[in-house]
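Researcher: Let's do a round of design. I'm pasting the C-alpha cells now; please hold your answer until I've finished.
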C-alpha cells in the first residue's frame, strides 16, 4: 500500500517538474479572454446574429464596388440564380462585386455576394 502511494507521489512530482516549463508560458489573461469569448459565442442569440450579419453586409456593400443591375455580370448571376427566391423561407439577395480576388460568400440573412475580378474596364 505504501509503495502505491509513493509511486503516485513520484509520478505527480515528475509531471509537475515536466510541466513547469509549459506553465511558465501560460498566459492567464489570454485564457480568461478565450473563456469569455466562448461563453459569448454559446449564448449568441438569433437576433444578435442578425444584427452582426446586417452590419457586415452593409459594410461590405459600402466598401466594395457593386455591379449595376444592368451590368453583364449581374445579369449573368440573375440568370444563374433564376428560381432561387428563398432558402427555408429566408429571401435571398444577390450582388456582384468588382474586386481583386475571386471569391463568394453567403450569410444567414440570405445575402449572397459573388466577387468578380476587376481588370480595369467596365462592360
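Researcher: That's everything. Go ahead.
Model: Designed sequence:
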Amino acid at each position: 500500500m505504501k509503495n502505491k502511494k509513493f509511486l503516485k507521489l513520484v509520478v505527480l512530482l515528475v509531471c509537475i517538474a515536466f510541466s513547469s516549463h509549459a506553465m511558465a508560458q501560460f498566459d492567464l489573461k489570454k485564457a480568461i479572454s478565450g473563456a469569455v469569448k466562448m461563453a459569448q459565442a454559446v449564448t449568441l442569440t438569433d437576433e444578435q446574429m442578425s444584427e452582426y450579419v446586417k452590419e457586415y453586409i452593409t459594410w461590405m456593400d459600402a466598401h466594395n464596388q457593386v455591379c449595376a443591375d444592368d451590368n453583364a455580370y449581374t445579369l449573368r448571376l440573375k440568370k444563374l440564380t433564376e428560381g432561387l427566391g428563398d432558402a427555408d423561407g429566408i429571401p435571398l439577395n444577390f450582388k456582384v462585386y468588382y474586386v481583386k480576388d475571386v471569391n463568394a460568400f453567403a450569410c444567414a440573412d440570405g445575402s449572397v455576394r459573388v466577387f468578380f475580378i476587376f481588370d480595369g474596364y467596365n462592360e
